[in-house]
Amino acid sequence: MLIELILVGLFVGAVAGFFGVGGGMILVPMLMLIGFNIKAAIGMSVVQMLFSSVYGSYLNYKKGKLEINEGLWVGIGGIIGGVIGASFTDLLPKETLQYIFLALVIFALLRVATAKSPEIGTQEKSFSKITLFIIGLIIGTIAMMLGVGGSVMLTPILIGFLHMPSKKAATAGLFFVVFSSVSGTIYKFFAGTFDNLNLDLHLVLALAISASVGVILGLKIKDKIKDKHHKYSMVVLYLVILIMLITKIWF
């Protein structure tokens, strides 16, 4: 089990760095496939996201690719939403969580696949601080309910509605994951959720640390490819996740 989790962590970390996601949207189905129930998978996913998003955002900031300004307001909303969503995880049945997760992936797939690439000279739209806060609040709530970082929703919004290039949206998405995962992890820790799940701390840390190593590789690959190829890759990612979820739920 330890070796499997390390390999999964490396892969998910690379995915997180490349696509700007927390990794939860692919990690949760993978953990379920290797034997964990969905609530245990969500608990492990939240910790993994904390490690990979903080480290990945730090690396992006060092490279000068992370713009913090507006992201802070979305992040503050994400912190509050993360606490709310983490509390709902323990109240909703796992079947409900699975179907919410499925609907979320379908939305993201359609939004990214149909979004037009911004033309040269096209200005990115912007929202007011209150709107950004509300967006973060809603995304953070849903994200922590499902054990994902929230960029699965935020990145399609940035690409489809704000005309942001795919790679830049991925960087902003990973930064948002920092806020939602911090609040979700703190809540679950003090609420005793991790104790109730009887998770092996060594396994959780092995997963989280290996994911942080994988982030380095994902960021390097992202920096070297064209934006349109990054967008196509994102569509493929959502398709893979969709197939994994459908397989788990119905087959």
What are the key terms here?
about 0% strand, about 80% helix, about 250 residues, 11 helices, mainly alpha
What does this structure look like?
The chain has helices at residues 2-19, 24-33, 38-62, 69-89, 94-114, 129-146, 151-160, 166-190, 193-197, 201-224, 227-250. The chain is 80% helix and 0% strand. The mean pLDDT is 84. It has one domain (2-250). The chain contains eleven helices and no strands. Helix 3 (38-62) packs across helix 10, helix 5 packs antiparallel against helix 11 and helix 7 (151-160) runs antiparallel to helix 8. It starts with a helix and ends with a helix. The protein is mainly alpha-helical and 251 residues long.
Provide a quick synopsis of the model:
With 251 residues, the chain is an all-alpha fold. It has 11 helices and no strands.
Topology as a string of helices (H) and strands (E):
HHHHHHHHHHH
Largest sheet: none
Q: Which strand-content bin applies to the residues?
A: under 5%
The global form is globular
- Are there runs of 5+ residues with pLDDT below 50, and where? none
Structural class: mainly alpha
Arithmetic mean of pLDDT: 84
Termini separation comes to 24 Å
DSSP E strands, number: 0
Cα gyration radius (Å):
17 Å
